[in-house]
Design goal:
This protein is α/β, with parallel strands linked by helices. The protein contains 18 helices and 23 strands. The strands form four sheets. Strands 8, 15, 16, 17, 18, 19, 20, 21, 22 and 23 form a ten-stranded mixed β-sheet that branches. The chain has a six-stranded mixed β-sheet with strand order 9-10-11-12-14-13. Bound molecules: zinc ion. The site of zinc ion has 4 residues, from loops.
Length: about 500
């Protein structure tokens, strides 16, 4: 008996000593691999098979154990799990590549020059659509007006979205084409007038009138946009995104492209809050596949801080007549929340101002009633009055924040909020403690894609971006927990 068990042990020992007896597609070695496992260990090597990491370990162990089709010497560089952006506009980023690029515009004249150059280069475009201007970066920090656009483009519609998408500069031809009556109020929106004359600036719901034009992009341009966005995300190390609001048609296109195998990105597609979308998904229910999750409704609460659309408890410090605005009445938010409960969906609401946050927490609380595991979200949670902290914890509401907003808004956020209230803004440590979870994202294309810049901004509070284009040390790799990684990385 003793003899036979000794023999067995000897055999086991011999078997386990076999050299290179396991197959792998790829072995990566001589690396610093951040695992985010229970002990937060950093490993030297890993073996990958069928697109999955099958083992992490010391250099010699992995190299001796595996017979790999391909071996890659990482030369001591760092490797991270694939990052997940907790709030972004994946399709929007891709579509932006088909618009006039107004990012980094230095003045109203520069804006006009870029639009004119684009119009010359693309005579085929029926509409000229641009995005990315920010008057806060200009010497004259005032909204531009549309007088030049009307002169240069009397017949061709032009719509130029501000960087945050909450304001747009449009010409008269665009107003005519959209059939917009500027003498009529739009609920949750504004059309800015100067001396009784329309300036061409539309805010929030008034600017959103044009969104349908962008949403109605032909399938071919959406396909191109999704693939462009995927390429840029992979280059930055992102393997998953939470896309903050899509319509039914686009979600169907994503399913199709994922089935074709061309779209590999893991997408948590939030459903945009529109009647036809909710009707569709009430029938369809929740979608959960390896690469697609549809189980959240994205709702807009208020506007943005830069354009003074964020709803504050007290007036803007640099405009004492202005509180900002809510885009819908309470009944609407309650209706969506009821829909979410009935259909087992998450609700995620854009709230930037402290009043909007309080308003939505109150609606959530009324519907959720008590502790729960539904993970309803407040998107942005930029200005949060400490008096409302307890509601996040009580109803397990997750704040979803974008730390590069803190550094981009830094130069002017203090003007909008004043010296006391600014302490309640971008308060990530405070928000993290409420439930022990903080979703991090970028809101790209509002900010750059680079997830490392997000960590840097979260920890250092300076806009020093890490190099993103020449960052050879980022390898998008997939662990078996694609939805959790970004959140676990939050500190
Ligand atoms: Zn967003």
């Amino acid at each position: 008996m003793i003899k036979s068990s000794l023999l067995l042990s000897a055999c086991t020992l011999l078997l386990s000593c076999h050299y290179n007896d396991r197959d792998a597609d790829l072995v990566v070695h001589n690396a610093n691999i951040v695992s985010l496992d229970a002990d937060n260990k950093v490993y030297e090597a890993m073996a990958i098979k069928d697109g999955r990491i099958i083992e992490l370990g010391p250099e010699q162990q992995i190299r001796n154990r595996y017979n790999a089709k391909e071996t890659f010497n990482a030369a001591g560089q760092w490797i991270y799990p694939g990052f997940i952006d907790g709030h972004c506009h994946f399709l929007g980023h891709g579509l932006n590549k088909q618009k006039v690029d107004l990012l980094g515009c230095t003045s109203a004249d520069d804006l006009i020059a870029r639009v004119s150059a684009f119009a010359k280069a693309h005579p085929e475009k029926e509409w000229i659509v641009g995005r990315g201007w920010d008057q806060n970066d200009w010497a004259v920090k005032e909204y531009p007006d549309n007088s030049q656009l009307n002169k240069l483009f009397p017949e061709q519609p032009v719509v130029l979205q501000r960087i945050d998408g909450h304001a747009a500069l449009v010409n008269d031809a665009a107003i005519r084409k959209a059939g917009l009556d500027i003498s009529k109020q739009i609920e949750g929106g504004q059309m800015l007038m100067r001396d009784g004359v329309f300036t061409g600036i539309l805010l929030d719901n008034a600017a959103a009138v044009f969104q349908t034009i962008f949403d109605d992009a032909p399938e071919a341009s959406k396909r191109e946009a999704l693939l462009d966005a995927q390429r840029d995300c992979f280059a930055a190390g992102l393997t998953g995104v939470h896309e903050a609001g899509l319509d039914t048609g686009t979600i169907a296109l994503i399913e199709k492209m994922q089935a074709e195998g061309v779209l590999k990105m893991r997408i948590n597609a939030m459903v945009a809050d529109q009647k036809e979308n909710l009707l569709h998904f009430a029938k369809r229910g929740v979608i959960k596949t390896d690469r697609l999750r549809v189980a959240t409704v994205k709702v807009y609460g208020d506007g943005a801080l830069g354009s003074r659309g964020a709803l504050l408890l007290e007036p803007y410090s640099d405009d004492s007549m202005h509180y900002g605005l809510m885009l819908h009445d309470r009944a609407h938010f309650v209706e969506v929340a009821q829909w979410c409960l009935a259909n087992n969906y998450q609700m995620a609401t854009h709230c930037i101002g402290d009043s909007a946050v309080r308003f939505i927490l109150d609606v959530y609380g009324e519907l959720l009633g008590s502790t729960n595991d539904k993970r309803w979200r407040i998107e942005h949670a930029q200005v949060v009055d400490p008096a409302d902290d307890a509601l996040f914890s009580k109803f397990n509401i997750l704040p979803s924040v974008q730390p590069t907003h803190a550094t981009s808004d830094g130069p002017w956020a203090g003007d909008r909020l004043g010296p006391r209230r600014i302490n309640n803004a971008y308060a990530y440590q405070r928000l993290l403690k409420l439930n022990g979870l903080l979703a991090l994202g970028t809101d790209f294309p509002v900010e750059a894609i680079d997830p490392l810049a997000t960590f840097y901004a979260a920890l250092e509070r300076t806009p020093k971006a890490l190099p993103s284009t020449d960052a050879p040390n980022i390898y998008p790799i997939c662990l078996n927990k694609p939805w959790a990684v970004w959140m676990h990385c939050a500190v």
